[in-house]
Amino acid sequence: GRSATQPPIEKGSGSRLDSLTAPERRLVELFERCAPSVAFIQTTMREGTSQLSLSAGHEIPAGTGSGFVWDNRGHVVTNFHVIKGAARAKVTLNR
Asked: What is the pLDDT of residues 3-19, one digit of tens each?
């Protein structure tokens, strides 16, 4: 989300948008419109498992990445390297 020290960008006299060029304002508006669909992805891998082991092992952090919500069913698109080898992926949205 937005930092407590950084108020939302609004148009109008004295706003932070007033000092931007028209293309910069359009870009800021685009980012703000699209931000809710950006996904932060954290993955874990299973450690200590083998075919000869009776224990299930445990999960360790593997990596992070980003993606975006593809449709209204909640499918998320990301690059393969973000989830490669992952046992689990946690997806967080910026809402």
From this structure: 444 455 555 555 677 89
pTM: 0.65
Q: How many CB atoms lie within 10 A of CB 43?
A: 21
- Cβ atoms 65, 24 nearer than 8 A: no
State which amino acid sits at residue 7. P
Q: What are phi and psi of 32, to 5 degrees?
A: -65, -35
pLDDT at 59: 87
Tokens representing 81? 């390297």
Token look-up 């007033």 returns: 18
Name the residue type at position 6.
Q
Three-class secondary structure of residue 61 per DSSP: strand
What's the rounded Cα separation, in Å, for the pair 78 and 67? 4
Q: Which residues contact 62 (CB under 8 A, 6 or more apart)?
A: 43, 44, 45, 85, 86, 87
